[in-house]
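Example record

One chain of 299 residues, shown exactly as stored in the release files.
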Amino acid sequence: MSTYLPTIKQLQYLVALHEHEHFGRAAESCYVSQSTLSAGIRELETLLGVTLVERSRRVVRFTPLGNAVVAKAHRLLREAEELSELVQSSGQPLSGELRMSVIPTVAPFLLPKILPRLRRDRPNLKLFLREETSQDAIESLHHGRSDCVLLALPFATGDVEKASICQDELYVAFPKDDPRDPPDRIPPSMIDEGRLLLLEDGHCLKEHVLAACNRPELRASATMIGTSLHTLVQMVDNGLGLTMLPAMAIEAGILNGTDVVARPLKSQKAMREIALIWRPNSPRAEDFKLLADEFRAQD
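Predicted structure tokens for this chain:
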């Protein structure tokens, strides 16, 4: 066995630099000075006797071996965090620090209902929230930046465990007094492909909408420029097209103060599953199940 082993801190510095590709931003994310982070990585390279990072004035480039070490560092850091979680989970249920990523099409509509009650009923829980697109949230989970993720399924999550929270129906939102406004549900065939406004790539809601409509031509012709559901609603309110909204957004009042109306989409797939997911075999699995119970009891 080697007498000298890399420290957790050195590995954290290396992973942060790989993520941010900039010494200054990496140092900020680790709450240390740039010189401290740089020195820590040089110490790691000296310890291992290899070059992990090629440095220049403008570019930070990892060597092939450096990339391999980063991949291993992610796993080691995740194991170290799970060791800490194991000790933490042996105390009071649903207490201590918990980092949760939440997607933007869920966070503003579901969290306001649950967070006040969590603060009241779970005073020992310190919940740190991170709003990210679905893809970024999954990456944060598997790299150990988040302990769990609140998102909408179906979505490619990799190997995870989950607790289902609720089903969320999809609605078509369009300007008031649209002459094609039916009294009940809107079939996908009534959606003008040139008028459909969707969120940018990276948001799972876009894929849910396209799957529910089951019209391949919509993927090519839909305008994918919205950065948030609120932005899409404002675009529809200004007569620029129509969009799709989840029921939870409508129930939360996203259409208040607008001349936009919404009708359910007539499709067998016009539904998304809201779920909490976490890494398999996490020592805090019972905490995550309790947290999911808290979300289910939102009403």
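Notes: The radius of gyration is 23 Å.
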